[in-house]
Amino acid sequence: MGPNDQFDPGQSGVDGDRFSLLHLHAEPQNEAHPDEDGGQAGELVLRSNEPGQDGPSSAEGLSMLVSVAGHTDAGQLSEQMADSLLSALPHRQMASFDVDALFDYRSRRPRMLFTDSRFSEFQGPRLDLYELQDALGRNFLLLTGDEPDFHWEKVAETLLELANHLGVSLTVFADALGLPAPHTRPLGVTAHGNREDLVSGISTWSPNAQVEAGLSQMLEHRFDAAGHDVVGYTVHVPHYLASGKYPQVAVAALEYVGAASALMLPTDDLREAARAVESDITRQVQQNPQVAQVVEQLEQNFDQYATKQQRSLLVHSDDAVPDAEELGAAVEQYLRSQPGDSIFRGPEGDIDETLGNDSQHGSDEDEGPRD
């Protein structure tokens, strides 16, 4: 199926029953693509990158990111990932699942506001599929929302059918577990899937155990059995921080997901929030000697059993890691290759050697102290 083709379950030879749980959203006309006609109701429309853009187009295969709120959502990972991606990147909603068929409202009652004698802002469950573009113009899909109570097999069949027709080449799962680890150490991860190049050497902890399955684990298994490329990253969150919003886990997950799928994903806002949370945690630990003692014990256990070496997804097994001089030379070469009006460049295209020169930029008395 080409990137500009339209997918209509009623005309594609696909068993329409598999899409009975799915509501398809037409692309708004003259909005995301003002020079092109929008899709009709009941169609999924994917478009390749604009001409001249670098990176793979939709025709070469999409990545689909999957992160749903469930029992493996420590630190509120799914919500933070979705908020970060949807607030920063161009996107449109492609489809949504029938929540009335998938969710037990009485077991997880929705939230509402009650103000000035009136109810408002009903916050019901959701399970949605989006199409997004990363910072380099690469298209990808995002499945996000709440883990359903019912019809897991039907959800899996629906997503497999969509993946086949939309040309998904890699499905990446991101979730998180609360484990006895200190917040003062790097977040660990357990990598899994059938892409050895994206799994080998990544895990900091990889046990052989029987585990309680969530929708994400079941989907990874079904996609794997169907012959799709899959990889997943389960980030380890300190258990005493697992129930609250922990931005650090979303930063780590987006780094793993972005590296595995060759996408440039936004993390700046999350990093800023993580610094604020880290400062608050440090203050609270310092004020409570008992908590400080627990953290110290966790640090000792972590340091004793932690994985000594972990491979980066950004470095392939046959790549040599550059030293500081090589990195510096590469950065300088990149800067010299930029247009003449780029930052840190003089009018002739050379790196401006006068940026720190007082005669060109004023004295210390004029500008105040320098960093």
Helix-strand layout with pairing:
Elements: E1 6-7, E2 22-24, E3 44-45, E4 62-69, H1 77-88, E5 91-97, H2 99-102, E6 111-115, E7 118-123, E8 127-133, E9 139-146, H3 152-166, E10 168-179, E11 189-193, H4 196-199, H5 215-225, E12 230-238, H6 247-261, H7 268-287, H8 289-305, H9 324-336, H10 358-361, H11 364-367
Helix pairs in contact: 1-6, 6-7
Give an overview in words.
The chain has 371 residues and is α/β, with parallel strands linked by helices. Helices cover 32% and strands 20% of the residues. The protein is built from 11 helices and 12 strands. The protein has an 8-stranded mixed beta sheet with strand order 2-5-8-9-4-10-12-11, sandwiched between helices. The chain has a two-stranded antiparallel ribbon with strand order 1-3. It has a two-stranded antiparallel sheet with strand order 6-7. The chain is globular, with a radius of gyration of 24 Å. The N and C termini lie far apart (55 Å). 30% of the residues are buried.
List keywords for this structure.
single chain; 371 residues; alpha/beta; 8-stranded mixed β-sheet; two-stranded antiparallel sheet; 11 helices; 32% helix; globular; disordered N terminus
User: Radius of gyration, Cα only, in angstroms?
Assistant: 24 Å
Q: Please report the total strand number as a whole number.
A: 12
Main sheet, how many strands, which sense, barrel?
A: 8 strands, mixed
Q: Mean pLDDT, rounded to whole units?
A: 80
Q: Give the DSSP E fraction (strand runs of 2 or more residues).
A: 15-25%
Instruction: Enumerate the spans where pLDDT stays under 50 for 5 or more consecutive residues.
Output: 1-7, 9-15, 30-43, 47-59, 340-371
Strand neighbour order, sheet with most strands: 2-5-8-9-4-10-12-11
Distance between the termini: 55 Å
Describe the global form: globular
Helix content: 25-40%
Order of helices and strands: EEEEHEHEEEEHEEHHEHHHHHH
Q: So how many helices?
A: 11
Q: SS-based structural class?
A: alpha/beta
